[in-house]
Amino acid sequence: MIIVASLLFIASCATQRSQPDSQLVHYYQAETQKPYDDVLAELEIAITEHNFRITGHSRVGKVIRERGSANFPEFDTIQFCNLTHAKALLEMSPHAVIHMPCNVVTYQIDGKTLIKTHLLPIDSDNDALNDFAAKMNQTLKDIVDFAAEQ
């Protein structure tokens, strides 16, 4: 009886946050067999060709290797932004700052390079914001696909 009561008490204290679909982070991913440095170079080309400026590049895997883990695999994150797009997005919704800057990650696993980006939600109550997000998502997919092309 004490065990059952304890379990019921513990269960009643546990909270579970519900998260509407508009707050879920959706990702787009491609993979390639191309050399890793070629993928990074082509990501930079695709980003600039779509009129974005690279605002940061973290070579996480390289730094870990330099600190003594010689066989650590590649992991990179590239952040980028277009101020015209940023202004438009923030004017539609100041809360959309959570989606900035755009970000692409690359990493190696099982002999292939994965390229991944998060997509903006397209199911808000704001139709203009949804349209903007859908166009931006296509641009992000195009950038990832360009880097993955053989």
From TrEMBL:
It holds the Pfam family DUF302. Residues 62-116 form the DUF302 domain. Transmembrane segments: none annotated. It comes from the Bacteria. This is DUF302 domain-containing protein. It comes from Methylomarinum roseum.
